[in-house]
Amino acid sequence: MLTKKAKYGLKAMAYLAGIEPGQTALVADIAASNQIPKKFLDAILSELRNAGFVHSKKGKGGGYMLARLPEQIAVGDLVRALDGPLAPIQCASKRLYRKCDDCPDECHCPVRLVMLKARDAIAQVLDNTSLAQMRALGEAGLKPAEGKAAKSAAAAAMDMA
User: Model-level pTM greater than 0.70?
Assistant: First the structure.
């Protein structure tokens, strides 16, 4: 599950993707427009700066800006920078793999095998979606038919739970 830190980080990055290249945005403005606590956003943007996704300027005209074009930033890389591996369990991780202590045969472990599929599906979407594409999705929103289909799918999932 995506943490609030990653969710807020993605919202902030989408906001920054919408400003003119070379311009900066104040943390207070990003926080206010996305209903993010400013102090929490300060810490998130600091992590994203340390990871090389944003630059910051101090003083007059200061704030944050993207370090690269939004088309060059994969959503999966942002999530990894803020939340760590995409895999739901460590034995399914490509980057931070660790064998489970309680698993005698991971090649036949049904939990690991399904989590590998989940990791691959998540990575397929997030690694092939740029920050620019994510922002464009938000600007376009859901079409009424898509919203109904999503509600129907959610209702069906609740019936199965």
Answer: yes
The CA angle 17-19-20, to the nearest 5 degrees, is 115
Q: Are 79 and 119 in contact (CB under 8 A)?
A: no
Q: Do the beta carbons of residue 57 and residue 24 sit within 8 Å? A: yes
- For the stretch 12-57, pLDDT in tens is 999 999 999 889 999 999 999 999 999 999 999 999 999 999 999 9
Which residue carries 């922002």 as its tokens? 135
Four-CA torsion 32, 37, 38, 42, nearest 10 degrees: -130
